[in-house]
Amino acid sequence: MDTVITGLGAVSPAGVGTAAYWAALVEGRTLIAPIPHFDTAGFPVRLGGTVPGFDPHEHLDGRYVVQTDAFSWFAMVAAAEALRDSGADTAADPYSTGVLVCSGAGGVEFGQRELAALCRSGPDHVGPYQSIAWFYAASTGQVSISNGLKGMCGVLVTEEPGMLDALGQSGQELRRGTSAMLVGGSEAPLGSPFSLACQLETGLLSTGEDPGTAYVPFSEEARGYVPAEGGAVAFVEGSSDARARGARVRAVVAGHASTFSGVGSMDPGGEGLLNAALGAMARAGVGPDDVDVVFADAMGTPKADADEAAAIRRLFPRGVAVTAPKTGFGRAYAGAGALDVAAAVLSLEHQVVPPTPHVSDPPVGLDLVVRVARPTPLRTALVLSRGAGGGNSAIVLKHPDHA
């Protein structure tokens, strides 16, 4: 039984909704700007990709707003869109639909606020939701509660590859008997000074001050990545169930694989990412000539980019279109893998490869789509992802007409 995506939702630096997200991607729009949430004076990193003008009260019941952090808000809004888009009636059997939403940092802004109250005024001034709002699984729990879903629930804390791994795990849940899953990744790592300070220790963040040049992977000017917030959620189900209810299949999840290449490293040498891609392609039953576009991880540091480019060349000796649309808005950690998956689904639907913003001269031997979007027949997309600590994942998505 194939796993298929029948619903999609997104909250990104382009705004709320997949329509706004796709419009920004296909235009190659620059969405990176100074971080507005707090004074970044004294920080070496001052740019980010933030969700513009997001007011949770416009999208969520007030009781959920006070109980949760922004990373849960993004997940709940994206999940609501994915549910509407799927057309599924989950109320008929709430135990048949599960939720699996990923996060790498959890509710850091909420946590900083409550810890400040603790240090300033004592434990009596810490709010009752501190024990749950910061927790990585808060987004999964709130998506489940707010939509009345009582099936399998879980969270993966695997940073950027989380969404890819969650899609793979959801396929297993469907084979065990679950009817459908809401699967996603969401992150809000730019809402507090503490959160940004925690990210600095990796040494991977760009200190550039020009939004047009701060995040330029696969180029001589690469200096790291720009952090971002946001996320995406997909409604997935078995192909037979989707057909039975007449659902529109947006993409087929054809194959997934993950590897681990060492604590404290970001896949040194690129072997972990290469083997994840080989595993995903093997499970999808596709070869190099079957893949039409690769959505690159695009770390933005010279060594990591060179390793990824070498892995792509080894995978596709005859060449393949490569893109990294996240350079227009930044890497949103667990939200980044989810937004990359959403971008791949939308590209398959529209038969267009979005460009890699800000990069004008791709490296020799890499067919990186730059400057403008490239309309082209698309059957299969490969999404690559690396996370802090050495986790690597790859997923193959197919257009439903070519599955």
From TrEMBL:
Alphabetized GO MF terms: 3-oxoacyl-[acyl-carrier-protein] synthase activity
Cited Pfam families: ketoacyl-synt (PF00109), Ketoacyl-synt_C (PF02801)
Domain of life: Bacteria
GO process annotations (BP): fatty acid biosynthetic process
Entry keyword set: Acyltransferase, Transferase
Residue intervals of the Ketosynthase family 3 (KS3) domain: 1-399
Entry keyword annotation includes Nucleus: no
PROSITE patterns to which the protein is assigned, alphabetical: KS3_2
InterPro entries named among the record's database cross-references: Beta-ketoacyl_synthase (IPR000794), Ketoacyl_synth_C (IPR014031), Ketoacyl_synth_N (IPR014030), PKS_Beta-ketoAc_synthase_dom (IPR020841), Thiolase-like (IPR016039)
Similarity annotation: Belongs to the thiolase-like superfamily. Beta-ketoacyl-ACP synthases family.
Name of this chain's protein: Minimal PKS chain-length factor (CLF/KS beta)
Originating species: Nocardiopsis flavescens
Organism classification: Bacteria, Bacillati, Actinomycetota, Actinomycetes, Streptosporangiales
